[in-house]
Amino acid sequence: MDIKARSNIIGHKNEIDFLTTLYVNKKLPSSLMFLGPSGIGKRLVAINYAKMINCSSDTNKPCNTCQNCIKIENNLSPDFYIIKPEEKKNVIRIDEARNIKKQSSASIYESAYRIFIIDDAQKMNFQTQNALLKTLEEPIGNNLFILISDSLTGIFDTIVSRCYVVKFMPLAISDVSNHLINNCKMNKETSNFLAKYTGGKIGEAIRLVRTDLLARRSEIINVLTKRSRINNFPEVNLSAKGMIRDDIKFMLSWFRDLLLVKTGQREEFIINIDRMAEIENCAKWYTVSDFYKIINDLISYEDYIDYNVNSKIIRDNLMTIVK
Ligand SMILES: [Zn+2]
Question: Model pTM?
């Protein structure tokens, strides 16, 4: 019985031990809630837990080779559902809750348990939660609901109280960094940067690698490390708000590091550790109060994005910072 040994899960030993104990001792509740920061692997644990519970091997569950394990892994099992927010609206609609109700009252096809994973459960709207609540309140047969959420805000107390809440802790920076070195073939410095920059959120680290944002970050830092940099700010796709948000985050982490060096903090707190020599050099160009002003300005530009301020205005403001 070892979920971790046969999956790519990083960390979460205590959470997995606890979940395994629930299963082994036949204390599986009808609803679980996996609660913890986004991007740390809660969904991966949920999928592998589903495999373990339905695995047909006598030992070594999940075996990853039986039909049940393979079908769940490939989302082909008729007794396994992953419910996610609708892409455009970013909300889980009532139709999903109605569908869950219908499916959960039918006979189970071929597995020991029928499992519903509700990912980003905090994105269920009012009507969806109301409809789901009725299903959770009257559990039928071997249905297991796993709600995954990064926050309890916006989730009805009545739903939370129906669930056995399992709190997922953030991953250790060193675990994330080692995973990136071993599985994504990254060098030590870059993986260290990614682990620290994302605060141990492996999902976010992988997003940065896959979407080529590391190259974008290099472009931005290259501009910030030159003294004559007026109008050198890299081209911004003005229709991509996400891109400006990432730009601002890169800049914030950069100036935060400069401030830490300026005020004599230890190197272990530096995020952009792969650019340490440049950080030490650039920190000399500013006073501490310059840093506070720049950092405050950047934080307010981040807010501009949420307030739907025109992207060009935000970009022009960023350019004033890099002068
Ligand atoms: Zn199996």
Answer: 0.81
